[in-house]
From TrEMBL:
Catalysed transformations (reactions): ATP + H2O = ADP + phosphate + H(+); Couples ATP hydrolysis with the unwinding of duplex DNA by translocating in the 3'-5' direction
Its biological purpose: Initiates the restart of stalled replication forks, which reloads the replicative helicase on sites other than the origin of replication. Recognizes and binds to abandoned replication forks and remodels them to uncover a helicase loading site. Promotes assembly of the primosome at these replication forks.
PANTHER family: PRIMOSOMAL PROTEIN N
EC number: 5.6.2.4
Pfam families the UniProt entry points to: DEAD, Helicase_C, PriA_3primeBD, PriA_C, Zn_ribbon_PriA
Gene: priA
Organism placement in taxonomy: Bacteria, Pseudomonadati, Pseudomonadota, Gammaproteobacteria, Alteromonadales
Descriptive protein name: Replication restart protein PriA
Amino acid sequence: MSIISIALPIPKRQLFDYLAADEIPKIGCRVRVSFGPRKLIGVVWEINQESDWDKNKLKKIEQIIDAQPIFDATQRKLCSWLAQYYKHPIGDVVQSAMPVALRKGESSEAKPTNYLTLTDSGKTFDLSNLSRAPKQYSLLEKLNKVELTKSQANQDFGISAVKALLDKELIQDVSKPHQINTSWQQQIVVQGKPQANVEQALAISSVEAKLAEFACFLLDGITGSGKTEVYLQAIEPVLKQGKQVLILVPEIGLTPQTVHRFKYRFGIDVGILHSGLTNTERLQVWQKSKNGELGIVIGTRSAIFTPMLNPGLLIVDEEHDASYKQQDGLRYHARDLAVVRAHAENTPLILGTATPALETLNNALTGKYHHLQLQQRAGKASVATKHVFDIRQQPLQFGIAQGMLDRIQQHLEQGSQVMLFINRRGYAPALMCHQCGHVEHCHRCDKPFTLHNQLYKLQCHHCGSAKPIPQQCNQCQSNELNAMGVGTEQLEIGLNKYFPNYSNIRIDSDSARGKSKLDTMLNSINNNEHQILIGTQILSKGHHFPNVTLVLILDIDGALFSADYRAAENLAQLITQLAGRAGRAEKPGEMWLQTHDPGHPLLQDLINNGYGHFAQYALLERKTANLPPYTYQALFKAQALNPKDAHTFLQNVAELFSQYSDVWCLGPIPALMEKRQGQYRMQLLLQAKQRSVLQHALGQQVNQIETLFLANKVRWSLDIDPQDF
Ligand code: ADP
Ligand code: ZN
Ligand code: ZN
């Protein structure tokens, strides 16, 4: 008797056994089963002869959804690896790996396509009768020669022309099963390809030498050094062999400009996957890629799960970017999964960045990855000079020192754009009473409320709760309430007053909500409609602003003294990426950093010696301190209304691991953000010198944790290779 083991969306680290009804489903197909009172959709994961359960009590599968597997052997391998490495329930992993439409049971087969063809009267129709309707004329003329899909005709000739001809019964709408079309290979035309410079050529040929095998490359190139050009030229021979390319980009980096570069170079359709798509759109790209109908797929984090018929190359752009790590549920790192995938599919992988993650750099320095370096800017652009500006004892206007305002003025007068970076949204990070010093706090998070003047409210940036701006102090009833510190909103107002002849644009998650809004903003900057760009993190990510010659960073002092050991690395990446926004075209650029601590060794090292030097030094420090990448970590987090529950739970977890002499436990200690949304948060960090040691211990204990007395009373999670503390 065949036992069908199914990955169901149930938070348990196991498969669930069922019996076949009459037909045995194939491994990798979706099936519908009853689970308790519910009907669930799961994926057949294994077929065995034996079960750990009483065979007589096993239920039968109710329906087989797919005739052909939606998970091929590689996809299954990746899911199994994820479940095993991240100690995550397999059913939940499988869900994450599927487009939402498939989770809901939609057909995995492409939908039929609507075509337009001529009717009998259309075939004999005298075209000259349509001389006054040119669109209808050309459409009918075209249909005389070729068949068109309805959507293509709507796009090329307009919906009304199509409708008019349908109404006149000159054409008809026929639905045909989707024809798998893999002809892109014949359509490739290479256009706009520059001669690679020496460094690029070396990088390209290194990748080309390994196209038929697994190999991992770190493409370590300063901003503007032509990394994208290296991708393009490395992709070319892959596509010409008819193999597919998957490119991951950070969420915010996926702009029409990026996509256009790939589309234009090869003249073929590019599949795009990001969080702004509808479920149907996502499913279509998934289907086309699986069927080999797309040569190139570009997408954000979860695009790493996109199946490919004939995979040839994987690229992770801006590999250091934090958006590749999922921060809830299945806490996977898409870059790390890309390495596993490339290995499973036997293809090369390029990790590109100007600021490699220390883990990645270490892999390159120890020879695990091939280290390709681009140290010159491509084309005519020169590298921006970097400076610190000492603001101790300096009066600041809306957060900016006079010396820096003068600099801004100079650059504006030369017709350039300037970019100001500040990592705080809103008007001011706090509202303080001048009489008694009271600061309005969010009680659920114990953090000051941010003042948002434009929204007329105080908002907590940790839990989102908001309330009207008070007129009086809560403690002493004084009405002298002052904004403390500077946020993007205040900066914008200040700069508007100070430079009335120049236009400002503020780009942060308040103003740039939604993808198309950000695209519009980026376009208006490139059209020089604005001269002063104010923004948060969003601005640092890979956008091209050829006319920006001055980048000014206003407030990083907080990050210099963070308790999180990754803060220094992230800050160095941020500063370097921001500096990379200046002087990308012919004009030379400069970056200035305002600070109260101009002698800080991190800043000095970064400014004088660059990211590469900083990173090597930071690695040395990590080694001395026994931190990753020289050790391996797993972080248990627990939260509860009562801090004691969270603490006791993690204490019990720590006891489970006390038997492993080479697993070191730190905690339980309060999380960096101790209270959030009314919940107290604690954490327990496990660390080991070897990955396998930590994996082994976790593998043995993770199911025990489920049975702990408090496991159902606290919300807890396990984060392997945590990035955030
Ligand atoms: P990165 O991805 O490293 O930031 P890009 O690939 O975007 O760099 O290149 C920066 C600029 O230099 C782009 O405008 C690109 O078209 C141009 N460029 C890149 N390589 C070359 C080359 N070999 N010759 C001329 N221009 C180049
Ligand atoms: Zn007061
Ligand atoms: Zn809050």
